[in-house]
Design goal:
about 550 residues, Transcription Regulator spoIIAA, six-stranded mixed beta sheet
Length: about 550
Amino acid sequence: MRTMTELVLGPLLRHVGERTATVWVETDRPCEVGVLGATAATFTVHGHHYALVEVDGLEPGSRTPYEVLLDGRVAWPEAGAEDFPPSEIRTLAPGERVRLSFGSCRRSPDTKGVHGHDALAAFARRLAQQAGEWPTALLMIGDQVYADELGDEIRAFIHERRGPDSEPRDEVADFEEYAHLYTLAWRMDPAVRWLLSTVATYTIFDDHDVRDDWNTSHTWREQVWAMPWWRKRITGGLGSYWIYQHLGNLTPQERAADELYAAVRAVAAEGGDAGDLVDEFAERADKDPAKSRWSYAHDFGDTRLIMIDSRCSRLLTADRRAMLDDTELAWLDEQCRGDRDHLLIASSLPYLLPRAIHNAENWNEAVAAGAWGKAGARFGEKVRQAADLEHWAAFENSFRAVAEDVGAVARGERGRAPASVAFLSGDVHYSYLARVTAPTTETPISQVVCSPLRNPLAGKFRWANVVACRKGTAWLFRGLAALARVPRPPLRWRLTDGPWFENMIATIEIDGRDARVVWEAAGPGATLVRRASARLSRPNS
């Protein structure tokens, strides 16, 4: 006998505009999904069923509770959800204050408490209690799932499915295992599940969403593609990312223009499974970054958010190395414009690292490229992979290109200069604020880092980063970089706040031309404790 259709995962509230909203769901069988009178048929990929319902006609600045209907039956809220308020869609309103909460690096689930208090769950429970101001959106900027550092639950699933000794050991292997990983990450904690149903969420991947140090170098790519299991891993990683994360980042207009989305829905209309289509797309996206774009930009009033793909869009050949390929760099250059009050550039990898680490990565890139000969290049590549030296600083030409773009905006050469320019990042497992000190511009340029949501840095690595953040530690690696003929960076900056090593979430608060950032640390009992705050714009800007 056919049972009722159920939600596997979701609802997730994704892109929200002044009158529109996107609600994402995964169901246990094909069905029609309804939200506030709008409907969408599911599509199927590798036996999993998904839908994105596009709601239109909402009032700007409104708060609208919603239910999710599967084939006409209410499936959300589920029984037992009385501990949380109804899920709502909160649309944007012209001129309203903007609050963008963000973080990265969340290990989940963590039933044993190994990784400390969950900042995302604490944030959810505070909102559920109607305490504090509501965020305009939540930005999850990297390592939403860990495909190569497994918890007990996903490991048990893999062992039952393919045995403990099959390759890759203690890593997910394909789309099916990625799908289970997302379910564990976003369903097991009821507070987090409710949060994602009621706060507009935007994401970008980092390395652990695929594999540690993903695309660190041309040599790394040659090594992983030589592994017999890598094709299923990369197609599963990018294909599942496209479904679980990327599609919801897009506006309805952008999604309508997505050729793969149209093809997948066409297959669904015929009752088919689009797994092969998604796999082909994912492999093509990995091998030729110019064939796809994961980056995107959205405006929240007079604040522009640019979310940069600093992983899959890398140009890594035997002859060239860049954080962004030529097509992606041209796109970023076009997005970096003034005539807005604030410019926020989100990159999972910090653009401005502690100076000692920046100089070390400068030096390593030059040595790995042959500045100290072939033997030095082999040594440099080993150090690069062992020490994770693959941030913006390890892509010198890309770093300089972005410095030129941001400097032009801050100097008012691309329209009216904004009141602030800030990079938002995670990845490094500690939080800090860095400020550009030279060349000076009327517009302050900052680096805001918030990491992790839940995955604190281990002892010896924490100690090493504390040392790297201290004043006076940068000169040694700057000397080495100079010996490798690396020019001085085009910017000077210093850490003014931090580092802090707790599990944290940060919020950018924007009111007109005033911008501030607040960091909050997760504490016992799903609490958040204010850790620090700082102004990102000049007073009276």
